[in-house]
C-alpha cells in the first residue's frame, strides 16, 4: 500500500529470487522490500502511464541497469518493451499474459500471471480497469471498450483468478453496489467485511473473479436488479449508466473544477502533497 490508496506489487520467483514489480509508484518503499526479501528486481510491468502507477520507473531504471520496463503506452516512463494484447512473457517459472484493456487510458494493459503445474490460483493485476466491487473511470475510452474489457477479456479468465487491483476503493465501491442492489446479501456481507478491514487498516485485495460476479455491479449487467436501477437493458447502456451514476455517487458538497479533479485522479498533485 502506497500513496493515499494505491497498490504496487512485487512478485518473486522463488527458485531464482528474481522479482518483477507491478506499477512501481514509490521507489523508496519498493527498494526496502527488495532488500528485506533479498531479491533482484528484473522487470517492471506498468498497467498505465498515470503518475500514481508509473512515476518510479525512471529512478529504478537508473538504479538497476538493464531493467526491463513493459507497458502498452509510449507515455510510460523508461519504457523498454512495448507489449501487445495476448503477448506472453516469462520470468523463470512465472508466466505472464498481457491483456489490453483500453478505456481508463487508451494504453491500459492488465497482466495475467501463473505458473505451470502450480496448485496456486493464477493472478490478475488489473490496474485501474477492474477493482474489488467496481471498475475504472472512462478517462480516455468508451462504455463499449469497458464492456469488452470486462466481459470478453477479464471476465473470461478462470473463476479462481485472484484480482490484485490498483487502488483500495472497496468500501466506496460496495456502498455504491448496495445502492444498485439493496437486496443483494453478498454485497452486504462483503461491505461489512471490507469496513472491518478498513477499520483495522488492512487491505481488501485480492478478491477472486468468481466473487466479483456476485457483488460487482459492473460484472452483473444482465441481472434484473441492475437493469432496473439503470432503467436500461442493453448491457453496454447498463454499463454506461452505471458508470455515470458511480461518478456522481456521494459527491462532496465542495467540488473542485473538472480539470482539478482530473489532475487529482491522475496523481499530478502528488509531489506537492508528499512535501507536506
TrEMBL record:
List, alphabetically, the CDD domains matched: hydroxyacylglutathione_hydrolase_MBL-fold
Q: Which InterPro entries match?
A: Clx_II_MBL, HAGH_C, Hydroxyacylglutathione_Hdrlase, Metallo-B-lactamas, RibonucZ/Hydroxyglut_hydro
Q: Which UniProt keywords apply?
A: Hydrolase, Metal-binding, Zinc
Task: Name the domain of life this protein comes from.
Answer: Eukaryota
Pfam families cross-referenced by the UniProt entry = HAGH_C (PF16123), Lactamase_B (PF00753)
The cross-references to SUPFAM superfamilies, in alphabetical order and at most eight, read: Metallo-hydrolase/oxidoreductase
Task: Note the coiled coil stretches, chain numbering.
Answer: none
Gene name of the record: Haghl
Its recorded name reads HAGHL protein
Give every Metallo-beta-lactamase domain span.
5-167
Protein family (similarity comment)? Belongs to the metallo-beta-lactamase superfamily. Glyoxalase II family.
PANTHER family in the cross-refs: BETA LACTAMASE DOMAIN, HYDROXYACYLGLUTATHIONE HYDROLASE-LIKE PROTEIN
Give GO BP annotations, semicolon-separated: methylglyoxal catabolic process to D-lactate via S-lactoyl-glutathione
Membrane-crossing residue ranges in chain numbering: none
Amino acid at each position: 500500500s502506497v500513496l493515499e490508496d494505491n497498490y504496487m506489487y512485487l512478485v518473486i520467483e522463488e527458485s531464482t529470487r528474481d522479482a518483477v514489480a507491478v506499477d512501481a509508484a514509490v521507489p523508496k518503499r519498493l527498494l526496502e522490500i527488495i532488500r528485506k526479501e533479498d531479491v533482484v528486481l528484473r522487470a517492471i510491468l506498468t498497467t498505465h502511464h498515470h503518475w500514481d502507477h508509473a512515476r518510479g520507473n525512471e529512478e529504478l531504471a537508473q538504479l538497476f541497469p538493464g531493467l526491463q520496463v513493459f507497458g502498452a503506452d509510449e507515455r510510460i516512463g523508461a519504457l523498454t518493451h512495448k507489449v501487445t494484447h495476448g503477448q506472453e512473457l516469462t520470468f523463470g517459472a512465472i508466466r505472464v499474459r498481457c491483456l489490453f484493456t483500453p478505456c481508463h487510458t487508451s494504453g491500459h494493459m492488465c497482466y495475467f500471471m501463473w505458473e505451470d503445474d502450480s496448485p496456486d490460483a493464477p493472478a490478475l493485476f488489473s490496474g485501474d480497469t477492474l477493482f474489488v466491487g467496481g471498475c475504472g473511470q472512462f478517462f480516455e475510452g468508451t462504455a463499449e471498450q469497458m464492456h469488452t474489457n470486462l466481459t470478453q477479456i477479464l471476465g473470461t479468465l478462470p473463476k479462481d483468478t485472484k484480482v490484485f487491483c490498483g487502488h483500495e476503493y472497496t468500501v466506496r465501491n460496495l456502498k455504491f453496489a448496495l445502492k444498485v442492489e439493496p437486496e443483494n446479501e453478498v454485497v452486504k456481507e462483503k461491505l461489512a467485511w471490507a469496513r472491518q478491514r478498513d477499520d483495522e487498516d488492512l487491505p481488501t485485495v485480492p478478491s477472486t473473479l468468481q466473487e466479483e460476479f456476485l457483488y460487482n455491479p459492473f460484472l452483473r449487467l444482465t441481472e434484473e436488479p441492475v437493469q432496473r436501477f439503470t432503467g436500461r437493458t442493453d448491457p453496454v447502456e447498463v454499463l454506461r449508466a452505471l458508470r455515470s451514476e458511480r461518478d456522481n455517487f456521494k459527491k462532496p458538497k465542495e467540488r473542485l473544477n473538472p480539470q482539478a479533479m482530473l489532475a487529482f485522479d491522475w496523481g499530478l498533485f502528488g509531489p506537492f502533497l508528499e512535501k507536506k
